[in-house]
């Protein structure tokens, strides 16, 4: 209840935008397509965030071998591993790719849209169909709904795949299993909401594909670099920080001593 | 006083756990800070109660954006309430 109250302004805003896009508004799209358009608008607003994320992801990939070394070194102590990774980011001026705010920002939009679709602003004679198969006010379990839910699950899988590019293996598996676990819940959502979620996932996939194109593939030289002294890495890939390779080598020695003392 | 402070905090703790069980699952391992934002929120709520804990957690979330650096950041290192 409290959450619903806090979200009322956002709900109203989304309803207004939806009505503006919808059959009685200025744009005049059918309802289903106006939901798709709304999704695209939300994601377009988030594009600056994504561009920033792509930049940091590139930076992160350059340092991937060193990061893996740190992960290996503190395999048993997850907390320590995390702290050392953060230190490494600091030292090498890395901005970790992902952050909580953009993810969390989509959550209120999702809840608000759920509330909007609950009391959908359509008039009696409106066309509520999408591609002639789905009625957006139906549940995901009705009619052709399960097909859409399956497409949703696939889109979620694909988008998780792109989002977890830098994640660990166990986390990746978790991300790939989740969409299947979610199906029983999703199937009770309105088709309109599934449409929103599916569109946003497909947008993520599209972004992932574009990002892959834009990103140079440093995979091969990076693997070699992990065996060669780190000085060459820095000069070969990153032009400016000549001091960067010297820094990580110092704390590493200290860490080894500490690790030895514990054992 | 301590107990009175803590009772409302359970509301916030419940919300964080709810987030963790639903959408949080999809965004696992995507925080740039240590501890993660949700863990920070839990710690802050336990340490500082609902009002101040929520402010700290909210501020942390705002800092966890693509322009920030991330890093090690515990609730007890805060300088807002002292």
Descriptive account of the structure:
The complex is a heterodimer of chains A (263) and B (82). Chain A is elongated. Chain A has twelve helices and two strands, in the order ααααααββαααααα. Chain A has a two-stranded antiparallel sheet with strand order 1-2. Chain A has helices at 2-21, 31-45, 47-62, 64-73, 78-91, 100-118, 145-163, 169-186, 191-214, 219-227, 230-237, 246-262; strands at 129-130, 134-135. The longest helix of chain A is centred in the C-terminal third of the chain and has 24 residues, at 191-214. Chain A has 263 residues and is mainly alpha-helical. Chain A folds into two domains: 2-219, no CATH class; 228-263. Chain B has 82 residues and is mainly alpha-helical. Chain B has a two-stranded parallel ribbon. The two termini of chain B are 17 Å apart. Chain A binds chain B through residues 49, 52-53, 56, 79, 82-83, 85-87, 89-90, 95-104, 107, 110, 160, 163-164, 167-168, 171, 174-175, 178, and chain B through 19, 23, 25-34, 36-37, 61-62, 64-72.
